[in-house]
Amino acid sequence: MLASLFDNAPLMIMLVGSLVGIASSLVGTFLVLRGVSMLSDAIGHSIVFGIVVVWLLTHQQSGPVQIVGAALTGLLTVFLTELLVSTRRVKKDAAIGLVFPVLFSAGVLLLNLYARDVHIDTHTVLLGEIGFVWLDTLTIGDYRVPQSLVWMGAMTLINGAFVTLFYKELKLATFDEALAKALGLAPGVLFYLLLLLTSGTAVAAFDAVGAVLFVAFVIVPPSTAYLLTDRLWMMFIHGALVSIASSVSGYFLAVAWNVSIGGMMAVMTGVFLLLAFLVGPRYGMVAQVLRRRGQRRVNEIRTLAVHLYNHEDGPEQWVENVTRALSEHLLWDVAKANRVVERSCAEGLIERRGETLMLTAAGREMAREILEPTRNGTGSLTTTAP
Protein backbone atom coordinates (compact mmCIF):
# COMPACT_ATOMS: atom_id res chain seq x y z
CA MET A 1 0.00 0.00 0.00
CA LEU A 2 2.84 2.38 0.89
CA ALA A 3 4.56 1.61 -2.40
CA SER A 4 1.39 2.54 -4.28
CA LEU A 5 1.36 5.90 -2.51
CA PHE A 6 4.91 6.65 -3.66
CA ASP A 7 3.90 5.70 -7.20
CA ASN A 8 0.95 8.12 -7.11
CA ALA A 9 2.38 10.94 -9.22
CA PRO A 10 -0.25 13.63 -8.43
CA LEU A 11 0.02 12.95 -4.69
CA MET A 12 3.83 13.13 -4.76
CA ILE A 13 3.77 16.38 -6.74
CA MET A 14 1.35 18.05 -4.34
CA LEU A 15 3.18 16.67 -1.30
CA VAL A 16 6.57 17.93 -2.50
CA GLY A 17 5.07 21.34 -3.29
CA SER A 18 3.48 21.50 0.16
CA LEU A 19 6.73 20.55 1.89
CA VAL A 20 8.66 23.18 -0.08
CA GLY A 21 6.06 25.74 0.94
CA ILE A 22 6.04 24.77 4.62
CA ALA A 23 9.84 24.61 4.91
CA SER A 24 10.21 27.93 3.10
CA SER A 25 7.53 29.75 5.08
CA LEU A 26 9.04 28.63 8.39
CA VAL A 27 12.24 30.56 7.69
CA GLY A 28 10.55 33.14 5.47
CA THR A 29 8.33 34.35 8.31
CA PHE A 30 11.33 35.83 10.11
CA LEU A 31 12.74 37.31 6.90
CA VAL A 32 9.42 39.02 6.19
CA LEU A 33 9.16 40.35 9.74
CA ARG A 34 12.74 41.65 9.57
CA GLY A 35 12.04 43.36 6.25
CA VAL A 36 14.80 41.45 4.42
CA SER A 37 12.69 38.95 2.50
CA MET A 38 14.42 39.77 -0.79
CA LEU A 39 17.56 38.15 0.59
CA SER A 40 15.81 34.90 -0.32
CA ASP A 41 15.83 36.01 -3.97
CA ALA A 42 19.55 36.75 -3.78
CA ILE A 43 20.21 33.39 -2.12
CA GLY A 44 18.00 31.56 -4.61
CA HIS A 45 20.07 32.84 -7.52
CA SER A 46 23.54 32.80 -6.00
CA ILE A 47 23.33 29.13 -4.97
CA VAL A 48 23.99 28.30 -8.64
CA PHE A 49 27.61 29.23 -7.90
CA GLY A 50 27.68 26.95 -4.87
CA ILE A 51 26.03 24.06 -6.70
CA VAL A 52 28.61 24.17 -9.48
CA VAL A 53 31.56 24.52 -7.08
CA VAL A 54 30.38 21.57 -4.98
CA TRP A 55 29.97 19.47 -8.13
CA LEU A 56 33.48 20.38 -9.30
CA LEU A 57 34.88 19.31 -5.91
CA THR A 58 32.76 16.22 -5.22
CA HIS A 59 30.97 15.37 -8.50
CA GLN A 60 27.73 15.04 -6.53
CA GLN A 61 24.61 16.60 -8.00
CA SER A 62 22.38 16.05 -4.95
CA GLY A 63 22.45 14.88 -1.38
CA PRO A 64 23.50 16.39 1.95
CA VAL A 65 26.97 17.44 0.75
CA GLN A 66 25.41 19.39 -2.11
CA ILE A 67 22.87 20.99 0.24
CA VAL A 68 25.44 22.04 2.85
CA GLY A 69 28.03 23.18 0.32
CA ALA A 70 25.67 25.24 -1.76
CA ALA A 71 23.98 26.60 1.36
CA LEU A 72 27.29 28.12 2.39
CA THR A 73 27.10 30.18 -0.79
CA GLY A 74 23.96 31.74 0.62
CA LEU A 75 25.93 32.80 3.68
CA LEU A 76 28.65 34.14 1.40
CA THR A 77 25.98 36.23 -0.36
CA VAL A 78 24.80 37.70 2.93
CA PHE A 79 28.37 38.24 4.18
CA LEU A 80 29.40 40.12 1.04
CA THR A 81 26.17 42.15 1.18
CA GLU A 82 26.81 43.16 4.78
CA LEU A 83 30.42 43.94 3.90
CA LEU A 84 29.30 46.38 1.22
CA VAL A 85 26.71 47.93 3.53
CA SER A 86 29.35 48.41 6.25
CA THR A 87 31.27 50.77 3.95
CA ARG A 88 28.30 53.18 4.29
CA ARG A 89 28.65 53.94 0.59
CA VAL A 90 26.04 51.44 -0.58
CA LYS A 91 22.53 50.86 0.73
CA LYS A 92 21.35 47.35 1.49
CA ASP A 93 19.02 46.95 -1.49
CA ALA A 94 21.78 48.10 -3.84
CA ALA A 95 24.29 45.79 -2.14
CA ILE A 96 21.99 42.81 -2.70
CA GLY A 97 21.61 43.85 -6.32
CA LEU A 98 25.37 43.97 -6.71
CA VAL A 99 26.33 40.71 -5.01
CA PHE A 100 23.93 38.07 -6.24
CA PRO A 101 24.26 38.85 -10.00
CA VAL A 102 28.04 38.45 -9.65
CA LEU A 103 27.76 35.06 -7.94
CA PHE A 104 24.98 33.92 -10.26
CA SER A 105 26.99 34.96 -13.33
CA ALA A 106 30.09 33.22 -11.98
CA GLY A 107 28.04 30.05 -11.47
CA VAL A 108 26.68 30.20 -15.01
CA LEU A 109 30.19 30.69 -16.44
CA LEU A 110 31.58 27.74 -14.46
CA LEU A 111 28.60 25.69 -15.56
CA ASN A 112 29.28 26.40 -19.23
CA LEU A 113 33.04 25.90 -18.92
CA TYR A 114 33.29 22.75 -16.81
CA ALA A 115 29.87 21.10 -16.54
CA ARG A 116 28.36 21.20 -20.01
CA ASP A 117 27.73 17.45 -20.09
CA VAL A 118 26.28 17.26 -16.60
CA HIS A 119 22.56 17.50 -15.85
CA ILE A 120 22.90 20.82 -14.06
CA ASP A 121 21.52 23.76 -15.96
CA THR A 122 20.23 27.22 -15.17
CA HIS A 123 16.73 26.38 -16.37
CA THR A 124 16.53 23.56 -13.82
CA VAL A 125 17.87 25.74 -11.03
CA LEU A 126 15.56 28.68 -11.72
CA LEU A 127 12.36 26.94 -12.80
CA GLY A 128 12.69 23.28 -11.80
CA GLU A 129 10.09 20.77 -12.97
CA ILE A 130 7.90 19.61 -10.16
CA GLY A 131 5.84 17.52 -12.57
CA PHE A 132 8.65 14.94 -12.78
CA VAL A 133 9.68 14.68 -9.11
CA TRP A 134 8.07 11.25 -8.82
CA LEU A 135 10.45 9.82 -11.44
CA ASP A 136 13.71 10.69 -9.63
CA THR A 137 13.75 8.24 -6.72
CA LEU A 138 15.91 6.81 -3.95
CA THR A 139 15.69 3.28 -2.59
CA ILE A 140 14.86 3.33 1.11
CA GLY A 141 14.32 -0.15 2.46
CA ASP A 142 11.94 -1.86 0.06
CA TYR A 143 10.51 1.37 -1.33
CA ARG A 144 11.51 3.76 -4.07
CA VAL A 145 10.86 7.23 -2.71
CA PRO A 146 11.12 10.50 -4.71
CA GLN A 147 14.40 12.24 -3.86
CA SER A 148 12.72 15.62 -3.60
CA LEU A 149 10.29 14.20 -1.05
CA VAL A 150 13.18 12.91 1.06
CA TRP A 151 15.25 16.10 0.99
CA MET A 152 12.31 18.47 1.40
CA GLY A 153 10.92 16.34 4.21
CA ALA A 154 14.30 16.51 5.92
CA MET A 155 14.57 20.29 5.47
CA THR A 156 11.01 20.77 6.77
CA LEU A 157 11.87 18.79 9.91
CA ILE A 158 15.16 20.67 10.39
CA ASN A 159 13.55 24.08 9.92
CA GLY A 160 10.67 23.12 12.21
CA ALA A 161 13.07 21.88 14.89
CA PHE A 162 15.16 25.06 14.66
CA VAL A 163 12.13 27.33 14.99
CA THR A 164 10.75 25.25 17.87
CA LEU A 165 14.02 25.08 19.83
CA PHE A 166 14.90 28.76 19.38
CA TYR A 167 11.39 30.20 19.19
CA LYS A 168 11.78 32.67 22.08
CA GLU A 169 15.26 33.73 20.99
CA LEU A 170 14.20 34.21 17.37
CA LYS A 171 11.12 36.15 18.43
CA LEU A 172 13.12 38.49 20.66
CA ALA A 173 15.89 38.95 18.08
CA THR A 174 13.31 39.77 15.42
CA PHE A 175 11.26 42.31 17.36
CA ASP A 176 13.87 43.79 19.73
CA GLU A 177 17.41 43.09 18.58
CA ALA A 178 18.93 45.54 21.07
CA LEU A 179 17.33 43.72 24.02
CA ALA A 180 18.42 40.37 22.58
CA LYS A 181 22.02 41.63 22.48
CA ALA A 182 21.73 42.95 26.03
CA LEU A 183 20.57 39.52 27.20
CA GLY A 184 23.48 37.84 25.43
CA LEU A 185 21.38 35.93 22.91
CA ALA A 186 23.68 36.64 19.92
CA PRO A 187 20.97 37.67 17.43
CA GLY A 188 23.57 37.95 14.68
CA VAL A 189 24.45 34.26 15.01
CA LEU A 190 20.78 33.32 15.03
CA PHE A 191 20.22 35.36 11.88
CA TYR A 192 23.08 33.65 10.06
CA LEU A 193 21.80 30.24 11.14
CA LEU A 194 18.41 31.25 9.78
CA LEU A 195 19.97 32.25 6.48
CA LEU A 196 21.96 29.01 6.38
CA LEU A 197 18.70 27.08 6.67
CA THR A 198 17.16 29.33 4.02
CA SER A 199 20.05 28.50 1.70
CA GLY A 200 19.75 24.80 2.47
CA THR A 201 16.03 24.89 1.75
CA ALA A 202 16.71 26.65 -1.55
CA VAL A 203 19.23 23.99 -2.61
CA ALA A 204 16.93 21.14 -1.58
CA ALA A 205 14.07 22.76 -3.48
CA PHE A 206 15.84 23.80 -6.67
CA ASP A 207 15.59 20.45 -8.46
CA ALA A 208 11.87 20.18 -7.72
CA VAL A 209 10.45 23.68 -7.92
CA GLY A 210 13.37 25.93 -8.86
CA ALA A 211 14.53 29.14 -7.29
CA VAL A 212 11.61 31.22 -8.56
CA LEU A 213 8.88 29.17 -6.85
CA PHE A 214 11.11 28.85 -3.78
CA VAL A 215 11.25 32.65 -3.50
CA ALA A 216 7.47 32.82 -3.91
CA PHE A 217 6.99 30.32 -1.07
CA VAL A 218 9.48 32.13 1.19
CA ILE A 219 7.80 35.53 0.81
CA VAL A 220 4.13 35.18 -0.13
CA PRO A 221 2.67 32.71 2.43
CA PRO A 222 4.27 34.55 5.41
CA SER A 223 3.10 37.87 3.96
CA THR A 224 -0.40 36.45 3.63
CA ALA A 225 -0.24 35.20 7.20
CA TYR A 226 0.91 38.65 8.35
CA LEU A 227 -2.32 40.09 6.95
CA LEU A 228 -4.36 37.53 8.87
CA THR A 229 -2.85 37.56 12.35
CA ASP A 230 -0.63 39.50 14.76
CA ARG A 231 0.56 36.37 16.59
CA LEU A 232 3.86 34.84 15.51
CA TRP A 233 2.90 31.22 16.13
CA MET A 234 -0.31 31.71 14.16
CA MET A 235 1.74 33.07 11.25
CA PHE A 236 3.45 29.68 10.97
CA ILE A 237 0.09 27.90 10.87
CA HIS A 238 -1.43 30.28 8.32
CA GLY A 239 1.75 30.13 6.21
CA ALA A 240 1.66 26.32 6.17
CA LEU A 241 -2.04 26.27 5.26
CA VAL A 242 -1.52 28.76 2.42
CA SER A 243 1.41 26.68 1.13
CA ILE A 244 -0.63 23.48 1.14
CA ALA A 245 -3.65 25.14 -0.43
CA SER A 246 -1.48 26.77 -3.12
CA SER A 247 0.20 23.47 -3.97
CA VAL A 248 -3.03 21.48 -4.18
CA SER A 249 -5.09 24.07 -6.04
CA GLY A 250 -2.12 24.98 -8.26
CA TYR A 251 -1.69 21.36 -9.33
CA PHE A 252 -5.33 20.80 -10.25
CA LEU A 253 -5.62 24.11 -12.09
CA ALA A 254 -2.38 23.46 -13.99
CA VAL A 255 -3.64 20.06 -15.09
CA ALA A 256 -7.03 21.47 -16.06
CA TRP A 257 -5.54 24.34 -18.07
CA ASN A 258 -2.44 22.45 -19.30
CA VAL A 259 0.04 24.98 -17.95
CA SER A 260 3.18 24.87 -15.79
CA ILE A 261 2.48 23.24 -12.44
CA GLY A 262 5.15 25.20 -10.58
CA GLY A 263 4.05 28.43 -12.21
CA MET A 264 0.42 27.85 -11.24
CA MET A 265 1.43 27.07 -7.66
CA ALA A 266 3.24 30.40 -7.53
CA VAL A 267 0.21 32.14 -9.00
CA MET A 268 -2.04 30.60 -6.35
CA THR A 269 0.15 31.96 -3.56
CA GLY A 270 -0.51 35.39 -5.08
CA VAL A 271 -4.24 34.65 -5.26
CA PHE A 272 -4.36 33.81 -1.56
CA LEU A 273 -2.37 36.96 -0.78
CA LEU A 274 -4.87 39.00 -2.77
CA LEU A 275 -7.79 37.38 -0.93
CA ALA A 276 -6.18 38.16 2.42
CA PHE A 277 -5.55 41.73 1.29
CA LEU A 278 -9.17 42.16 0.23
CA VAL A 279 -11.23 40.15 2.72
CA GLY A 280 -8.88 39.48 5.64
CA PRO A 281 -10.83 39.69 8.93
CA ARG A 282 -8.66 42.45 10.41
CA TYR A 283 -6.42 44.09 7.83
CA GLY A 284 -8.39 43.33 4.67
CA MET A 285 -9.65 46.27 2.68
CA VAL A 286 -13.29 45.22 3.06
CA ALA A 287 -12.90 44.84 6.83
CA GLN A 288 -11.24 48.25 7.07
CA VAL A 289 -14.01 49.90 5.04
CA LEU A 290 -16.67 48.27 7.23
CA ARG A 291 -14.76 49.23 10.37
CA ARG A 292 -14.45 52.85 9.25
CA ARG A 293 -18.13 52.92 8.36
CA GLY A 294 -19.04 51.49 11.74
CA GLN A 295 -16.80 54.00 13.52
CA ARG A 296 -18.34 56.84 11.54
CA ARG A 297 -21.80 55.74 12.62
CA VAL A 298 -20.68 55.55 16.24
CA ASN A 299 -19.20 59.04 16.00
CA GLU A 300 -22.45 60.37 14.55
CA ILE A 301 -24.43 58.92 17.45
CA ARG A 302 -21.93 60.32 19.95
CA THR A 303 -22.11 63.75 18.29
CA LEU A 304 -25.90 63.71 18.52
CA ALA A 305 -25.76 62.72 22.20
CA VAL A 306 -23.38 65.60 23.02
CA HIS A 307 -25.55 68.06 21.09
CA LEU A 308 -28.69 67.04 22.96
CA TYR A 309 -26.87 67.04 26.30
CA ASN A 310 -25.54 70.57 25.84
CA HIS A 311 -29.03 71.92 25.20
CA GLU A 312 -30.85 69.71 27.69
CA ASP A 313 -33.01 71.55 30.27
CA GLY A 314 -32.05 74.88 28.71
CA PRO A 315 -34.46 77.51 27.41
CA GLU A 316 -33.58 76.58 23.82
CA GLN A 317 -34.14 72.83 24.30
CA TRP A 318 -37.49 72.78 22.47
CA VAL A 319 -35.90 74.54 19.48
CA GLU A 320 -32.44 72.95 19.34
CA ASN A 321 -33.22 69.35 20.26
CA VAL A 322 -35.39 68.56 17.25
CA THR A 323 -34.49 66.72 14.06
CA ARG A 324 -34.79 69.74 11.76
CA ALA A 325 -32.27 71.70 13.86
CA LEU A 326 -29.56 69.10 13.25
CA SER A 327 -29.11 70.24 9.65
CA GLU A 328 -28.18 73.74 10.80
CA HIS A 329 -26.03 72.89 13.83
CA LEU A 330 -24.39 69.62 12.74
CA LEU A 331 -24.45 70.25 8.98
CA TRP A 332 -26.35 67.03 8.31
CA ASP A 333 -28.88 66.69 5.53
CA VAL A 334 -32.40 65.65 6.50
CA ALA A 335 -31.94 62.02 5.43
CA LYS A 336 -28.75 61.64 7.46
CA ALA A 337 -30.27 63.33 10.50
CA ASN A 338 -33.22 60.94 10.39
CA ARG A 339 -30.90 57.91 10.05
CA VAL A 340 -28.80 58.92 13.05
CA VAL A 341 -31.89 59.61 15.14
CA GLU A 342 -33.38 56.21 14.24
CA ARG A 343 -30.14 54.39 15.12
CA SER A 344 -29.88 56.27 18.41
CA CYS A 345 -33.47 55.39 19.28
CA ALA A 346 -32.86 51.74 18.37
CA GLU A 347 -29.85 51.64 20.72
CA GLY A 348 -31.87 53.15 23.53
CA LEU A 349 -29.83 56.36 23.76
CA ILE A 350 -32.60 58.83 22.94
CA GLU A 351 -36.38 58.85 22.81
CA ARG A 352 -38.94 61.05 21.09
CA ARG A 353 -41.41 63.24 22.92
CA GLY A 354 -43.39 64.70 20.13
CA GLU A 355 -40.81 66.46 17.95
CA THR A 356 -38.34 66.85 20.81
CA LEU A 357 -35.43 64.43 21.14
CA MET A 358 -34.71 63.48 24.75
CA LEU A 359 -31.67 61.62 26.07
CA THR A 360 -32.24 58.43 28.03
CA ALA A 361 -30.10 57.64 31.07
CA ALA A 362 -27.73 55.65 28.86
CA GLY A 363 -27.47 58.47 26.32
CA ARG A 364 -26.84 61.02 29.07
CA GLU A 365 -24.09 58.85 30.55
CA MET A 366 -22.45 58.53 27.11
CA ALA A 367 -22.45 62.31 26.65
CA ARG A 368 -20.91 62.83 30.11
CA GLU A 369 -18.12 60.33 29.35
CA ILE A 370 -17.34 62.14 26.10
CA LEU A 371 -17.33 65.60 27.64
CA GLU A 372 -15.50 64.74 30.88
CA PRO A 373 -12.00 64.61 29.32
CA THR A 374 -12.59 68.04 27.77
CA ARG A 375 -13.10 69.75 31.13
CA ASN A 376 -10.22 71.73 32.59
CA GLY A 377 -9.24 71.95 36.23
CA THR A 378 -12.00 74.47 37.07
CA GLY A 379 -14.68 72.19 35.69
CA SER A 380 -15.60 74.40 32.73
CA LEU A 381 -15.75 73.08 29.20
CA THR A 382 -12.70 73.87 27.05
CA THR A 383 -14.33 72.95 23.77
CA THR A 384 -17.20 74.46 21.94
CA ALA A 385 -20.21 72.21 21.99
CA PRO A 386 -22.13 71.63 18.79
Automatic annotation (TrEMBL):
<feature type="transmembrane region" description="Helical">
    <location>
        <begin position="39"/>
        <end position="58"/>
    </location>
</feature>
<feature type="transmembrane region" description="Helical">
    <location>
        <begin position="259"/>
        <end position="283"/>
    </location>
</feature>
<feature type="transmembrane region" description="Helical">
    <location>
        <begin position="64"/>
        <end position="85"/>
    </location>
</feature>
<keyword id="KW-0813">Transport</keyword>
<feature type="transmembrane region" description="Helical">
    <location>
        <begin position="203"/>
        <end position="220"/>
    </location>
</feature>
<dbReference type="GO" id="GO:0010043">
    <property type="term" value="P:response to zinc ion"/>
</dbReference>
<dbReference type="InterPro" id="IPR001626">
    <property type="entry name" value="ABC_TroCD"/>
</dbReference>
<feature type="transmembrane region" description="Helical">
    <location>
        <begin position="232"/>
        <end position="253"/>
    </location>
</feature>
<dbReference type="Pfam" id="PF00950">
    <property type="entry name" value="ABC-3"/>
</dbReference>
<feature type="transmembrane region" description="Helical">
    <location>
        <begin position="94"/>
        <end position="115"/>
    </location>
</feature>
<keyword id="KW-0472">Membrane</keyword>
<dbReference type="InterPro" id="IPR037294">
    <property type="entry name" value="ABC_BtuC-like"/>
</dbReference>
<keyword id="KW-1133">Transmembrane helix</keyword>
<feature type="transmembrane region" description="Helical">
    <location>
        <begin position="179"/>
        <end position="197"/>
    </location>
</feature>
<keyword id="KW-0812">Transmembrane</keyword>
<keyword id="KW-1003">Cell membrane</keyword>
<feature type="transmembrane region" description="Helical">
    <location>
        <begin position="148"/>
        <end position="167"/>
    </location>
</feature>
<dbReference type="GO" id="GO:0055085">
    <property type="term" value="P:transmembrane transport"/>
</dbReference>
<comment type="similarity">
    <text>Belongs to the ABC-3 integral membrane protein family.</text>
</comment>
<feature type="transmembrane region" description="Helical">
    <location>
        <begin position="12"/>
        <end position="32"/>
    </location>
</feature>
<dbReference type="GO" id="GO:0043190">
    <property type="term" value="C:ATP-binding cassette (ABC) transporter complex"/>
</dbReference>
<protein>
    <submittedName>
        <fullName>ABC-type transport system permease protein</fullName>
    </submittedName>
</protein>
